[in-house]
Amino acid sequence: MNEILIAQFFHVLAVVIWIGGIFMLDLMLAPLLGRFIAAQDQRVHLLYGLLRRFFAWVWLAGGTLVVTGYGMVFLYGGFGALSPPMWIMVVLGTCMVLLALHVFFAPFRQMGRAIRREDWKAAAGAAAKVRFLSGINLFLAFPTILAGVWGIFGSS
């Protein structure tokens, strides 16, 4: 195996963990919480606990994506050697990582502070921001993944 194949494997694995997690939390689990847990304080506590665990994996996946993604740029010969779809993937992927950092350091941390103050309305509002911004990342994942597939398989 060569370095690019190993980097690609870990890159795709990290995408599956991160984007699959967003898909599961935003589109499946979070909507069900409102239907099955009536008490807002219990709902936001549960969602916050899930997000805390998820963000631990996002840090690992995001770090892996940055290291493998930019590492592959240099394995391919640098930014000047990238094809247009690879450029799209680099730019959108970087935007996604920056957005994930914002989600963690702004609304997610606001949610935690609101829970500690027992301000359930503010916690729910911060949770809604987390879901909205994560939804943007989920939306951005589609063209990013498409660009990656196009860049690897479309040129042959």
Q: Could you please describe the fold and organization of this structure?
A:
- With 156 residues, this protein is mainly α.
- It has helices at 3-36, 40-75, 84-116, 120-153.
What share of residues is helical? over 70%
Mean pLDDT: 95
Main sheet overview: none
What global shape is seen? elongated
Cα end-to-end separation = 20 Å
Query: Strand content of the residues, in percent?
Result: under 5%
Count of runs of 4 or more consecutive helical residues: 4
Which structural class is indicated by helix and strand composition?
Answer: mainly alpha
How many strand units? 0
List the helices and strands and how they pair.
Blueprint: H1 3-36, H2 40-75, H3 84-116, H4 120-153
Helix pairs in contact: 1-2, 1-4, 2-3, 2-4, 3-4
Observed structural traits:
156 residues, mainly alpha, 4 helices
Short description:
With 156 residues, the chain is mainly alpha-helical.
